[in-house]
Amino acid sequence: MPSSRPRAPASSPPATRPWRRLERDLHDGVQQRLIALGVELRLAESDVLPADECLRERLSQAVQSLMSIVDDLREIARGIHPAILSRGGLEAALNTLARRSAVPVTVTVEVGRKLGDRVEVTVYYSVCEALTNAVKHANPSRIQVDLRTEGAVLRLSVRDDGAGGADPARGTGLIGLRDRVEALGGSMCLTSPPGRGTTFTASIPIDAGLSGSSGAASAVRRRPAVRRRRVRAGGRSTARSGRRGEGGRVPPPR
C-alpha cells in the first residue's frame, strides 16, 4: 500500500527565518539527541540481569516508543530548509551531523565550486537520513560519508559496516529522499546485503539547484580541495587535509 504521508517537493521555496529556526530546533538538535538516547536505552537494556525480565521489557517498549517519536519528528522536519546550511555551508553542516551521531563518522568533501540551495538541501537530508537509519537499524561501528564532483555530477556515498539487509520499502524516509534526488534529475541507489553493511549512493547534476543561464555550467572550476574530518561521538574532532588516500581509519567506539 502506498504511503499516505505527503512527500516534500524538492522545488519548495526557501523557508523564512521562523521556519529555519524551527528546523534547527527539530532536525539539527532534537532528532539527533533522541536517536542518541535510544542507543543509550538499548545499551541499558542489554545490561539488565536475566532475573529482571520485567525491566527489560519496559526498556524495550520505551525504545520502540522513542523511535516512533523520531519517525514522526522526521516527517515534520522534512522539507524545512536546514538553518545550519545558511550559517556555515554544506561541509560544516555535514560535520555537525557527524559530531552528533551516536556512531563515529568520517566525512570527506571534495567539492571545489558553489552548489545550488536545492542540491545542498538534498545532500544534507540524504546524509541525515542515512546516518539515522544506520544508527537505528544497523548497529555499525563506523560510517563513512564521501561527497565529490565528477565533471558536472555530484556523487554522494554513505557507507556503514553494520548488519545490512536494509529495505527502502519499509519506511517513507528513503522514498522521500528518492523523490528529492529524482526531482533534480539525479538517481539514488541502496546496496545492503545482509551482514555486509549498507551503501547509499546518489548522483545529482551540479547545476540542478542553480538559477540563471547555462553560463554557470561553464564556469571555471577550482581544483577540488580535499578535507577529511574524523569525528568521535561526544568527543573532539581532528581535521586533516591532503590528497585522497591520506588519513587514518575511524576507530570503533569503546
Automatic annotation (TrEMBL):
SUPFAM superfamilies according to UniProt: ATPase domain of HSP90 chaperone/DNA topoisomerase II/histidine kinase (SSF55874)
Keyword annotations of the record: 4Fe-4S, ATP-binding, Cytoplasm, Iron, Iron-sulfur, Kinase, Metal-binding, Nucleotide-binding, Phosphoprotein, Transferase, Two-component regulatory system
Source organism: Actinoallomurus iriomotensis
Recorded superkingdom: Bacteria
Gene Ontology CC annotations of this record: cytoplasm; membrane
Biological classification of the source: Bacteria, Bacillati, Actinomycetota, Actinomycetes, Streptosporangiales
Biased composition (Low complexity): 1-10
Protein name from the UniProt record: Oxygen sensor histidine kinase NreB
Histidine kinase domain span: 129-208
Broad class of the protein's primary localization: cytoplasm
Gene Ontology molecular-function annotations: 4 iron, 4 sulfur cluster binding; ATP binding; metal ion binding; phosphorelay sensor kinase activity; protein dimerization activity
CDD domains, per database record: HATPase_UhpB-NarQ-NarX-like
Region (Disordered), start-end ranges: 1-22, 211-254
